[in-house]
Amino acid sequence: MKILGIGGSPRIGGNTDILLDYALSGTRSKQVEVEKVILGNLHFAPCQECEDIPDDGKCLINDDMQILYKKINQADAIILASPIFFGSLSAQTKMMIDRFQCLWQAKYIRKMYKPEKRLGGFICVEATRRTDFFENAKVIVKNFFATIDVIYKEELLCSGIEKKGEILEHKDHLEKAFEMGYMLSRYKKNRTFGNR
């Protein structure tokens, strides 16, 4: 089994990044192949809404997103992690998601893309305690997961966390992140989500 963690925080070693590491360590306890990608380390452009896209939904822009497309396609489960910025996902995360517009068209307009079902989890951290910010972010993530046929199965929403590394003082959040990774591994083993 392959589990891909996608980090959308611009702050390496920050709260979101730490939680993603804990989640991925939970998957390693099930002896699965784990990979972590930090979006801030990739060089990619925002979606250009190209007109002449292929029927198979492949993006025409040749940048680091081509690498990420392959990793996402090969993953059996995906954990996406992003902090809240201005009431929604980070710019890095949203820009990555927008680059799946070609795939969205291939799937819903041209009916050419038929991916296999996978499982997904979402980790989100914010400094305030406004639940509507989480709801904004979740709507986007759920649309993204639906486009790539990932079932939104697990979530960890942590509010009131601001200072870098502050999440380490919240053992309950760390344990829940670890449990998320563990549960995603277990779902695959038990094949409770289709015939992948």
Task: Describe it.
The protein is an alpha/beta fold and about 200 residues long. The protein is about 40% helix and about 20% strand. It has a five-stranded parallel beta sheet, sandwiched between helices. Helix 1 (about 15-30) packs parallel to helix 6. The longest helix is centred in the C-terminal third of the chain and has 20 residues, at about 170-190. The radius of gyration is 16 Å and the shape is globular.
pLDDT under 50 segments (min length 5)?
189-196
Order of helices and strands: EHEHEHHEHEH
Number of domains: 1
SS-based class = alpha/beta
Separation, N- and C-terminal Cα atoms? 11 Å
Strand fraction equals: 15-25%
Query: Can you name the CATH architecture?
Result: 3-Layer(aba) Sandwich
- Summarize model confidence as the mean pLDDT: 90
CATH class: Alpha Beta
Largest beta sheet, briefly? Answer: 5 strands, parallel
Helix content: 25-40%
Strand order within the widest sheet? 2-1-3-4-5
CATH topology: Rossmann fold
Number of helices: 6
Which of globular, elongated, flat, extended, rod-shaped describes the shape? globular
What is the CATH homologous superfamily assignment?
Flavodoxin domain
Number of strands: 5
CA gyration radius, whole angstroms: 16 Å
